[in-house]
Structures are given as C-alpha cells and as structure tokens.
Amino acid sequence: MHTWEAIFLGLIEGLTEYLPVSSTGHLLLTEKLLGVTSPGRTFEVLIQLGAILALLTVYSGRLWHLARDFPSDAKVRRFVFSVLIAFLPAAVIGVLAHKIIKDYLFESPFIICTALVIGGIVLLFVDRMPLRPQYHDVMDIPPLKALGIGFFQCLAMIPGVSRSGSSIVGAMFLGTDKRTGAEFSFFLAMPTMAGAFAYDLYKNWTLLTPDAIDNIALGFVAAFITGVIVVRYALDFISRRGLSFFGWWRLLVGGIGLGALAILH
Questions:
Q1: Measured between alpha carbons, how far is 150 from 170 in angstroms, rounded to an integer?
Q2: Per-10-residue mean pLDDT for the chain, 265 residues long?
Q3: CA separation (Å) from 223 to 32, 87, 94, 212, 243?
Q4: Helix (H, G, I), strand (E, B), or coil: what is residue 176?
Q5: 70, part of any domain
Q6: C-alpha torsion 51→64→73→169, nearest 10
Q7: Nearest 5°: phi and psi at 61?
Q8: Phi, psi (5° rounding) for residue 176?
Q9: Which of 9, 28, 113, 125 is a Cys-bridge partner for 254, taking CB atoms 3.0 to 4.6 Å apart?
Q10: Is 28:109 a contact under the CB 8 Å cutoff?
Q11: pLDDT of the residue at 257
C-alpha cells in the first residue's frame, strides 16, 4: 500500500464512519478498485481509532459533564447504563462471528454492494414513514429501547449495511426522532468501535509489520481530521435534510458496484 493510498483510505474512513453509508463497505470497495489489501484486514479496523478519537474530541465537553455528574445524577447513570447495554449484543456477536466476518463477508464485493443497495432503499423508505417519535433527548432513551438499538446495530456486521445507519433506523423505529437517533449512534459508537479496535489488535498484532504500522498511522491521522469535521456537522445535516441523501448515495455506489461486477464477472 502506497502512502497516498493509506491517506486516501483514511479520509474515506473519517468521512463515512458516522454517516449511514457504511465506512467498511466504502473502504473495502475502494481497496478492490485500487488493488490493495492489508494482512488480516487489520488496516480497515485499526484506522477506526482515528475516527474514535475525533468523536471523543468533539464530545469531550459532554463526556466530562457525564463523568462529573455520574455519581450524583440518576438520569446520567441510566443513560450510561443504556449505552453500555446497547453495546452488549455487538460485543457478544462480534466475538463469536469474528472469523466469519473477516474471512468471508469482508471478501465479497457482491455482498457489500447488495447491502449498500438494500440499505439505501431502507433509508429512503424510513425517511418517508410517518413515525411519531417519543424521545427527543438522547438522555431519555430507556435501557430496553437502547438494547433494541444495540441489536439493530449488529446488522452492520455485514459490510455495506452501516453501523450508524442500522442504529439510527433502529432508534427511529423504537421511538426517537432522527437527530436523537443519530446522537445515540454517536455515543454507542464509542464502546463499539473501541471494542472492535481492541479485539482486532489482540487477534492480529502479529501481522503488524513496520510498513503496516506506518500505513495505519497515516490512515489514523486522515480519519481523525475528516472525522472531526463530519461529527461537528452530521447531526444538523440529518435533522434538517433527513436520510434520503444517504439513501440515494448508497444506491449509486452499490448500483455501480453491482454493474461493474456483472460486466467484469
């Protein structure tokens, strides 16, 4: 992998991680297009640390207030518990299905493109549904609803589905408005992505050659920079414009991918 390829892929990671378009799907398809790969697919997972730190940076004030008020505020404690219980399904299923995900699903452009198209149709459909949200503040989502969102998030273990997309749609079905669902997806991303990073590093640290580490570092920096920009503006965009833009984008990318696969066999 060349230096510019690592940086370019990092930019894609940061731009797409917190939008409902599937960062993993975009990364894997771009790698197929460029003809590059990484040992054990570690690059794709480990550069997520840049996107994680981007989110932590933008949300540092919120996180500080949560930590400060946790001992004395029951509402804060319930919210933290809700995020943690929403993380559990991904933690359990991710560990059990890790090998299948990395060895099979990551290697199928057809599955990725199909998931992009199906996900795009779902976003367009959900964006037009006359849902009546009950929760307009992320702090008000009860633990059982959060657990349901966590199960929706597990759909994103299929590359091309989108972690943020599945959790936002799940949250909307379970009673949140679009902005609140997207914000809960941000908070849920913190333990989910950190857990995926730590587990993949544990499983594949022997594959990290000096060249691989250099590429991951470049991708990390690029993902951090673009991730900060996206996190700052994504909630306002989604609350004003909805999900349709992302649905059409997914249809475009997935459709082009399926067309290319049909032509090139």
A1: 8
A2: 88 92 91 80 80 92 94 95 96 86 82 95 93 93 96 93 94 95 94 86 76 86 94 88 94 94 83
A3: 19, 23, 23, 16, 23
A4: strand
A5: yes
A6: -20
A7: -65, -45
A8: -95, 160
A9: 113
A10: yes
A11: 93
Check residue 179 and give its pLDDT: 93
pLDDT for position 40 = 64
Query: What DSSP assignment string belongs to 7-24?
Result: HHHHHHHHHHTTTTT-HH
pLDDT of 44: 77
Assigned domain for 207 exists: yes
Alpha-carbon distance of 65 to 130, in angstroms, equals 35
Q: Which of 193, 169, 150 is nearest to 250 (CA)?
A: 169
User: What pLDDT score was predicted for residue 97?
Assistant: 85
Q: Give the CA count within 13 Å in the CB-facing half-sphere of 260.
A: 15
What is the number of domains present in the chain? 1
Distance CA 85, CA 72 (A): 21
10 burial type by CB count under 10 A (0-12 exposed, 13-18 middle, 19+ buried)? buried
Q: Looking at the domain assignment, is residue 43 inside a domain?
A: no
Q: What is the pLDDT of residue 3?
A: 87
Euclidean distance between CA atoms 183 and 190, whole angstroms: 12
Full-model pTM: 0.90
Domain span including residue 86: 3-35+49-264
Backbone φ, ψ for residue 137 (5° rounding): -135, 130
